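Consider a concrete sample entry:
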Amino acid sequence: MKRAGFWLLGGLALATLLGCRTATGPRFDARAASAAKLAALTNLTAVAETNLLSLEWLKPPTNRFTLGPGDYLEVEILVDVTTRATNAVGPDGRIYFYLLPGLDVWGLTLPDTRALIERELLKYVREQPQVSVTLHGAESQRVWLLGRLNKPGVYPMPAPMTLIEALSLAGGPSSSSGLASPGGGPAGSGSSEEVADLRRSFVLRDGQVLPVDFSRLLKEGDMSQNIYLRPDDLVYVPLANSREVFVLGAVLQPKPVVFRERMSLVAAIANAQGTIKDAYLSHVAIVRGSLTEPKIAVVDYKEIAKGKAPDVLLEPGDIVYVPFSPYRTLVKYADLILKTFVQTVAINEGARAVSRIVNPVGVNIGVGASPAPAP
């Protein structure tokens, strides 16, 4: 909608508020917890993907480019080259040309803008003027291409763009032989081993993750995954060998924690400052694998913390989710966790793209408004 703010900035503010929880969770007997044996996770269940790709996403959008703040136009009254001028669309959506006061062009196409200028000029000249309007820079419609790409950043999107075109624009996924030094120097030598994790790569649109399989698209050439992007879409390609575990949900500080050898569930939650008062500890979930083919296990964290059940060993990349209430169905529970994970990553990475000073935040989303019977 015209003059609507980006969802990402609103999500960042929401996540910041949600991160300001001060309630502390129950205190556990540390001796009992340390006495519990460590066990490998064996009850992982594969869940089917419920969010399917729409065929409409594979078709180029039919709506034409509309102007917004930051766009640059070259405007000229034909047969009078002295009127040629470059005009920026201001924050208020207006341009200023020739004798005209500010004209509101926010949301107009280029033909609409030309017609508006010609109509307004009739108030100041005797004959019907003919005006040329050319787009010189498109900054109002952008796409976010972030993560392990050779040229990550926020790119203008003046025309329809597919996912492959966008990834190419950002230099494609990084490899170890193409990584630049942290100081911005030349890339170091090495093998061409891939460092981009295609299993955890995603496209986020209006707060919803799109079920695009990056591995099928880039490794197998499956063009059914090559969707058309829309303005403000966020494409993220994470690091393949990331040594982190993501702890989200009803914990005091939702965040990624550094993975250490033989890290357990109790240790990971402790690194997130523990659970909060309203946490439902009997249905703590661990999600493992790709975003399109995830596996989920639900454990009773209360029993683990009391030493009545063995603690669980985690793996790098695991997502630990502490809910506020029992889950209703396993598939919807997995969808909720992945949505929370993707939104958290997108908010933090998007904030880093526009500012060097970012305090990581987490998104907390309850399973339901009221507890539901366990399945």
Q: What stands out?
A: DSSP finds eight helices and 20 strands in the chain.
